[in-house]
Amino acid sequence: MSTNTEDGPSKQPRLERTVRTSTREVLARLNTGVQQLIPISTYRRRRRPEPPRRSQVGSARHRTQPVPNPVTLIPEGFATIFRPTAEMAMNLADCKTAAYIFGHFNRIGEILFRNGAFTMPRGVFYSISPGEQLHPNVVRTLCFLAADAASKREPVRAWFLPCSFATHVWAGASPSEMDVAYAHPYMPATKTLRHVFIPVAEPDGAYYLVLIDLKDRVVYSLDVCRSAETVAQREALIDKLVIFPYYG
Q1: Residue 99 Cα distances to 15, 74, 83, 132, 165, angstroms
Q2: DSSP readout, 122-164?
Q3: CA distances to 53, 113, 114, 121 from 118, in Å
């Protein structure tokens, strides 16, 4: 066992000389009261740290650092047409997508979504920005994505139809015509259909959503632009959508 000199750390006892000896000999000297190595009054053994209590161990084990909102990871100097807010509760993938779509890349013609002949350039997505008039093709894209996801679930219980569906029903299109236009991918064959989602686009740029619950035989109209001037026409359209025979 060795000890330090005066040049050693201040925490160790100060000795006039360095003594090297075996552990057995040190124990023998201590047991016989011979204090030639280190006076007992100045010798202090380092106490081992006490293990944490069980409650402390559990709390430390499950303690997690707060996760920053992904919105804060978008650099402040990054110029965007639209910047997400913390209240949107977006995850990191959502923030990356928003940054790519709405960033100032000067490529408004870049195609970001394609379904057959239907394409969605970046500039159309810019209409999502607050203060802009939402483009109908944005709603159509959302309906296609929702319908595609619903068709992959077994059994199929929901249809998500584009805005043009309501327009064709209002114009008096027959079920056979609607079948050709919307059977794929919006209306897959199913015997367990319960919900039909139909967004409606008004000429002035307003939108509202009609939800038909076939099981409970209830119709919901989610309309934030409802007014006394539009009630009659909107209720007439909803009546036509409800009695449309295709989905029973």
Answers
A1: 67, 7, 8, 18, 32
A2: HHHHGGGSTTSPPPHHHHHHHHHHHHHHHHTSSS--EEE--HH
A3: 64, 8, 6, 10
Q: Percentage of residues in the chain with pLDDT exceeding 90?
A: 32
pLDDT of residue 81: 79
How crowded is residue 162: how many other Cβ atoms within 10 Å of its Cβ? 23
d(CA 20, CA 24): 12
Residue indicated by tokens 């139909």: 198
Lowest mean pLDDT among 40-44, 135-139, 213-217: 40-44
> Burial of 248 by CB count in 10 Å (0-12 exposed, 13-18 middle, 19+ buried)?
exposed
Give the whole-angstrom CA distance, residue 240 versus residue 172. Answer: 9
Antiparallel, parallel or unpaired: β 158-160 and 195-201? parallel
Measured distance CA(5)–CA(126) in Å, rounded? 74
Q: Half-sphere exposure of 38 toward its Cβ, with a 13 Å CA cutoff? A: 22
Domains of the chain, CATH where assigned: 1-43 (no CATH), 134-247 (3.40.395.10)
Which residues have a Cβ under 8 Å from the Cβ of 140 and sit 6 or more positions away?
A: 118, 162, 163, 164
Number of C-beta neighbours around residue 98 at 10 A = 22
Residues 178, 90: Cα–Cα separation, whole Å:
36
Q: Which two tokens stand for residue 219?
A: 């119709």
pTM of the model: 0.64
Q: Which are the contacts of 161, defined by CB distance < 8 A and separation ≥ 6?
A: 143, 147, 182, 186, 187, 196, 197, 198, 199
